[in-house]
Amino acid sequence: MTRNRMLTAAAALALLPALGAVSGTALAADASAPSRSYKPIDLFALEYASDPQISPDGKKIAYVRRSFDIMTDRARANIWIIDVATGEHRPLLSGTASFSSPRWSPDGKRLAYISSAEGSAQIYVRWMDSGATARVTNLTQGPAGLSWSPDGRQLAFAMFVPEDAKPFASMPAAPEGARWAGKPVVIDRLNYRNDGAGYAAQGHDHIFTVPTEGGTPRQATRGAFDHGGLIDWSNDGKTLIFSANRKDDPDRHPQRDQIFSLNLETGALMQLTKREGPSVAPQISPDGKLIAFLGYTDRYTSNQEFSLWVMNRDGSNARSLTASMDVGVTDFGWDSRGGLYFAYDQQGTTKLAYTTPKGGTRILASGLGGEDIGRPYSGISMSIARDGTVATNVTSDTQPGDVAVIKGTSLRRLTRLNDDVAAIRDLARVEEIWTTAADGVKSQSWIMKPANFDPSKRYPMILEIHGGPHTNYGARFSAEMQAYAAAGYVVLYSNPRGSTSYGDKFANMIDKAYPGSDYDDLMAAVDGVLAKGYVDPARLFVTGGSGGGVLTAWIVGKTNRFRAAVVAKPVINWTSFALTADNPAYFGRYWFGKNPWEAGAQAEYWRRSPLSLVGTVKTTTMLITGEQDYRTPISETEQYYTALKLNGVETAQVRIPDSSHGMIDRPSRLVAKTTYILGWFAKHGGVETDKGE
What we know:
Elements: E1 48-54, E2 60-69, E3 74-83, E4 89-93, E5 99-104, E6 110-115, E7 122-127, E8 133-135, E9 143-148, E10 154-162, E11 193-194, E12 198-199, E13 203-211, E14 218-219, E15 227-233, E16 239-244, E17 258-263, E18 269-271, E19 279-284, E20 290-295, E21 307-312, E22 319-320, E23 329-334, E24 340-346, E25 349-355, E26 361-368, E27 382-384, E28 390-396, E29 399-407, E30 410-413, H1 419-424, E31 430-436, E32 442-448, E33 459-465, H2 479-486, E34 490-495, H3 504-507, H4 518-530, E35 535-545, H5 547-558, E36 564-568, H6 574-580, H7 584-592, H8 601-607, E37 620-626, H9 634-646, E38 651-656, H10 667-683
Parallel strand pairs: 33-34, 33-35, 35-36, 36-37, 37-38
Antiparallel strand pairs: 1-2, 2-3, 3-4, 5-6, 6-7, 7-8, 9-10, 10-13, 11-12, 13-14, 15-16, 16-17, 17-18, 19-20, 20-21, 21-22, 23-24, 24-25, 25-26, 27-28, 28-29, 29-30, 31-32, 32-34
């Protein structure tokens, strides 16, 4: 059974995973008359399934049921359990506290999980026959990456370990009773802040073990390095397998995680992989002879996909099992026969396949995912029972993530968490469209029409652009786009060149050239929809977030065909961005090949900056960004706002207080984003919206 989920080593402008967990709430009431139109506030009625974990015998599935509490404006995560044979579905751990990371013991008799029920995040173990529960830890920092030892006596986990800063100056003591300002903060790391986490504390992530009946955690790793991700045990329980970046000055060398083994008895640490590129998420085969992992050889291109690899237990004879498929593997796990199930994206859908270390691959299922609820991004969790039954999540254009099981090529959906919403809200469906740019490149898009679509009418249209830029959209549920369609817009969303799920060549067509020809793909998609005759060419609107915000700002600098635009959390000036975004060692080297001050670099940084086109912008443009965004810092938004104002372009700056890049810290922030976008478009010739909804 997999101990699940992948460490993602990509540092892209993508939205960081979609809305977190939360609890069901009654749908928004319409005081005047019953309405079947989906509204932004209906987000609070939605639920979705994540992290499904199947018991070793394949009979039960524990999963995290996520929802949104409208009264507290908080995400909620509870653990539910499903009987695979009967479909019986009931809460296991429920309430206002967070419950997450369910992990079955090797014998299936206990379930470990993480909960904040007693204030701080701690590890608990529940005996499934009696319901008795023991708190296993008393930690000062939050744990992650739970993994059972083969004998069920220990749990491994990762946790941040603070370190005392070493001051190079000492302030004199303040007089008794004096009220001096707070102490200066000294920063000496390259990666000194992280989006969603804030300014980094002094310290590192280390791996610990703790007895499953409680006791004092034992720190297993040491040094000024971060360890963690997926943690696995050797079959005899004496050794841990994990990934870490232990290069000198790791902040300057991203994408260099390697796989290590650690003997718990002797403390001996052995590096098993030594590639120029990352090796992550190790899992030991059932017979203990092989290790499967994800990795790639670093080519310093802006997009690089993980392949599924296997190697001997000592690190020798490493070989890729999926290199010939030209896909990026996102999750995987062994079955008891020594075969491997793995998930990957292809043409905007997530698929499951099966292979063996000797080769040969079978495609088993598609339409998987549902880890994002805001926009139609990919994202999947899976686990595998001894008999090869796979537990995963599935999604569609009208359904957020549900739990399903796959046996061979047979997929059976076990939950229908949002049937209550579908019963009283008309949700829009999507249709696929392929278009061709002037240079012959074909790209895939989807059209979402209002649920009450009338082909004889002409509708306004919103072009919505994904982030990344190396991510992908698909026929998956999107709360944002459902709200746009319900408001009366045709919604177009695309995977232009640079998007993943179409192979390495397509994704790297924008390597060292973004934004650029991806603009041509988006315009070809717009033209393709206009040719159908039901969209009003005088009422075109455009928006996108993160990498999509970059392209939106680029578009309004290139064309005046759009009536209004909303640029969300963009990069406007690549020079300032490269030196203020989190993970600064990444963007200059991988996206430009040079740092901004190096010879010949500045002209290219400026050429690709939307700020360079601001003098040509005529389109009314709103900007929206979180004030605590450290991925695309709000200073980027401020630059563009000021430039547009100086250029005489109608603009507005919407700032989301205390919000990071994803704008998902509180559910109401996604509602606010959607509402303000609709309001801006309504103000400039779009569909009038009901105030306050």
